[in-house]
Amino acid sequence: MSLQALAVGLMLFFSSLTGFDAVLDFFGIDKQVYLEHIQQTKQAIVLQETGPQNDQSAPSAQPAPSGQSDALSTTAQAAEQPSQSAPAQGTDAEVLQIEKDVFQLVNQEREKRGLKPLRLDADVSKVADRKSQDMKEKHYFDHQSPTYGSPFEMLQKHGIPFRAAGENIAAGQKTAKEVTNGWMNSEGHSANILNPDYTHIGIGYVQGGDYGTYWTQIFIQK
Fold first, then answer.
1. Is 209 left (phi over 0), alpha (psi -120 to 50) or beta?
2. CATH number of the domain enclosing 181
3. Could you tell me where the Low complexity compositional bias lies (predicted)?
4. pLDDT value of residue 28
């Protein structure tokens, strides 16, 4: 772990005990300057690993080398992808418009490169929403949830089958375009967005918390 990542972790730990603003006041740190620094720092935090698949016939995932991102992925056998974009699986009544905007931007990036569009899965979006809400409520920014475990464990606990899965997270961005541009400018995040094996996506967005906004993308291969 880098010194920058350690410093960020310590700040978040103490903020969970005494309050975020109180910690900043104690150290004499301007809140806006700190949040801007976090936005730059988290693009450089090394956090990429693998997780289990539900499909027992798929080969075991091997630990991937660390990348410069807050992206998480695991690999498995290729699955047939949809031939065209389709509505959300189930009902999308609870999918926010800003989440649909991210979905559209993701497919635009894929289509630019000749990749098949993803399907927006309402059930996976519910999981992504819960992950974003969990990060907000528990004052953390990490793929490993103290409540649900890894993204792969979280999918399994919610009964969602998958052969491969990946996760992108972000915090502080105000618009769908801003967060998508940030992910696309990061090697690890864009690798998930442009992975030709993924077939479905879920998107979670919540407001509030230490950073103001929390975003989660969960990709799966069915």
1. left
2. 3.40.33.10
3. 76-89
4. 72
Sequence-ordered list of residues with C-beta below 8 angstroms from that of 155, at least 6 positions apart, any chain? 54, 124, 127, 162, 165, 218, 220
| Contact call for residues 111 and 117 (beta carbons, < 8 A) | yes
Q: What is the Rg, in whole angstroms, of the alpha carbon atoms belonging to the chain?
A: 17
Query: Tens of pLDDT along 152-210?
Result: 999 999 999 999 999 999 999 999 999 999 999 999 999 999 999 999 999 999 999 99
Question: Measured in Å, how far apart are the chain's first and last C-alpha atoms?
Answer: 34
Q: How many structural domains does the chain have?
A: 1
Structural domain that includes position 151: 101-221
Query: How far apart are the C-alpha atoms of 203 and 193, rounded to whole Å?
Result: 12
- Helix (H) or strand (E) holding 204, with range, is strand 200-208
Q: What is the pLDDT of residues 11-68, one digit of tens each?
A: 555 555 556 566 567 667 766 655 555 544 443 222 333 333 333 322 222 232 222 2
Closest CA to 180 of 205, 198, 155, 211: 205
Distance of alpha carbon 161 from alpha carbon 134, whole angstroms: 22
